[in-house]
């Protein structure tokens, strides 16, 4: 009984890199076409649309070196249900359990992309929101964990006074007893607003929002009410679906900084997982992050310069109607590296310096002003 | 200014496996103690509780082979904020971006575990709920994707008539146009109940519940209203936090099958990520899954027998007051392997055979009855 599924005929492609000989790669690619869709013995599939169109299609296999091939597999856009969770499931759900397969990039037609509003602000929107037209944005983090809400607020005040644009929570600040979420967000938001009155600037405080299920949503709304100016969200912890909801919720309406916590497992191994480009670039943007934070090369983490450039590329290159977003390289950055980072990332970048602002010298306010001076200084 | 944080003194341990020489491992372990907590230059940490107790402690370093060490690091339970998202963040958030570090297991004191209700049913609860006292439970999946709600319901009817205990959606069934969630759940629930009236058995239908943010919660409530008897949840897609909420929500109150989609990336690489034991065993159970589905060794996936046994161990061994849960080995299983699986996993196991039930022969009802006969047959 051939079923007619009224499919649009539009398909999206996933470019996988697969290890093995040409024959092995072809066999694995065929398995992926089945595994990611019908997950059913091929011989028993009904004739018609399921067999012909729901099962993935191998579009191309290209050798890219010894025992490495790039394989383009296309899927009917309807398999995604036009939802982010299921889209990610089709891209890599069960295949994540197979070694030697890596998602390199995703190519989506307009008919699929239009299901995803993406970033509410994007680069231009964030610039307007913060009143910064051209230069890179300055960002830092409130830490260490263990400080009280008042101590964090004092820190935020100094950082805002020093000319930082975005002051985010360290991603380890949740709702711990030493600085409970509501108290911390109220104090830090107020401190930043007080500093703004002194400086005439538009610094914003971005609390880290996490928690069990819809507690994340509750905290995001609370943050907005308490005067936060942006949100820090780690989709590896709370899910890309929650991030998408926060980005589209009219009652929140704040820029979102995407944090990479826990997502490293996907990208770290060169022969498995999801590439830096796809997970920190494409998926973050698709889910509505206005900036994607990632460890810059040459810092505490082992991301390569090439991987970082790929993230920045995915953040900015054309992607349907989705706004370009800021790359936010971080992870052990120092003031000394600001000129280099501008050369590599250009002006549309958020420079996130955390601990490095404190180690520069004992006067945090002076360090912030030096950071600002460096960034306002023409290259 | 030494801060007194009124910490309980209770700590949980994460056992990491770290690659490198003894000196490299010690240095990396020290970095993890900082990275997973204060993420701040050590020299600038304030004296007192933050420096002494918030920063992780290296409790032991044990050589376990050439260039491999097991390192036990303890963290103050308060760093977790007693929340699952932040607990996972402390365990592996930023360190996920470092190669050569793998979470082997987590050791939590009662004072931390009691913050997590865990599985609502557990093995015993599910047995009571399904009226099956001793033997392994029989489970299968509705597929392939592309069938209509009516076609899936017809399939469910036959499977229930054949004596299957749990009929789950394939994890790729979301809310696609060919079988929209509400229509599918209504039809399949009704079909299973109709079969139960014929058989006198208590088969349940477990729809796959996903979606953007709190859409997952809405669908779970809808599923309950429409007569679903359990839920299939993939925390890799919707987050462990959402799973925890579904497990504790009094308005839902259904057993939860945890699906491994997307989580493979954590476990597949032997020198990185989170072990099978920790992610498919400990975290699934902590988040409230009543069963953990994983690819059995010797099927379509590359999990080892040892890894599968480790998952089963984590599912059942003592873990504070948390109920033991069912291992549910799957992924290319066949009726022929039932006796072996009973030998390996014992009687407290859910045997999940999907496509294998269809390939056995053309008569699906007969195949189900044979599955049931095999399982009711004493070893």
Tags for this model:
alpha/beta, 379 residues, TIM Barrel, homodimer, Alpha-Beta Plaits, four-stranded parallel beta sheet, 16 helices, 13 strands
Summarize the structure.
The structure is a homodimer of 379-residue chains. Chain A contains 16 helices and 13 strands.
What would you note in describing this structure?
The first copy, chain A, is α/β, with parallel strands linked by helices and 379 residues long. Chain A has two domains: 11-113, 2-Layer Sandwich (Alpha-Beta Plaits), CATH 3.30.70; 122-376, Ribulose bisphosphate carboxylase, large subunit, C-terminal domain (TIM Barrel), CATH 3.20.20.110. The first copy, chain A, is 40% helix and 17% strand. In chain A, the strands form three sheets. Chain A has a five-stranded mixed sheet. In chain A, helix 12 runs parallel beside helix 13 (305-316). The mean pLDDT of chain A is 96.
């Amino acid at each position: 009984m051939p079923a007619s599924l009224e499919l649009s005929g539009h398909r999206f492609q996933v470019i996988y890199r697969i290890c093995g000989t040409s024959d092995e790669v072809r066999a694995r690619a065929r398995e992926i076409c089945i595994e990611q869709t019908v997950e059913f013995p091929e011989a028993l599939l009904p004739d018609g649309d399921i067999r012909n169109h729901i099962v993935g299609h191998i579009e191309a296999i290209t050798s890219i070196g010894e025992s490495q091939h790039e394989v383009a597999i296309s899927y009917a856009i309807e398999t995604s249900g036009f939802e982010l969770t299921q889209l990610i499931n089709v891209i890599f759900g069960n295949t994540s359990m197979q070694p030697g397969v890596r998602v390199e990039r995703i190519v989506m037609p307009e008919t699929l992309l239009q299901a995803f509003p993406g970033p509410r602000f994007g680069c231009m929107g964030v610039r307007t929101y913060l009143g910064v037209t051209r230069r890179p944005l300055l960002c830092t983090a409130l830490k260490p964990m263990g400080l009280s809400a008042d101590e964090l607020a004092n820190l935020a005040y100094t950082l805002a006074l020093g000319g930082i644009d975005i002051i985010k929570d360290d991603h380890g600040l949740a709702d711990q007893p030493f600085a409970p979420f509501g108290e911390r967000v109220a104090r830090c938001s107020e401190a930043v607003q007080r500093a703004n009155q002194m400086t005439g600037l538009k610094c914003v405080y971005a609390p880290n929002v996490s928690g069990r299920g819809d507690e994340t949503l509750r905290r995001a709304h609370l943050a907005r009410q308490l005067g936060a100016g942006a949100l820090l969200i780690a989709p590896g912890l709370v899910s890309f679906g929650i991030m998408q909801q926060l980005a589209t919720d009219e009652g929140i309406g704040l820029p979102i900084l995407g944090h990479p916590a826990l997502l490293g497992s996907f990208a770290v191994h060169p022969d498995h997982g999801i590439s830096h480009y796809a997970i920190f670039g494409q998926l973050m943007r698709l889910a509505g992050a206005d900036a994607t934070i990632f460890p810059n090369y040459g810092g505490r983490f082992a991301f390569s310069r090439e991987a970082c450039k790929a993230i920045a590329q995915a953040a900015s290159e054309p992607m349907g109607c989705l706004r370009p977003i800021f790359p936010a390289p971080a992870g052990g950055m120092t003031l000394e590296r600001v000129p280099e980072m501008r050369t590599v990332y250009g002006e549309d970048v958020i420079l996130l310096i955390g601990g490095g602002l404190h180690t520069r010298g004992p006067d945090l306010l002076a360090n912030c002003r030096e950071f600002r001076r460096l960034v306002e200084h023409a290259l």
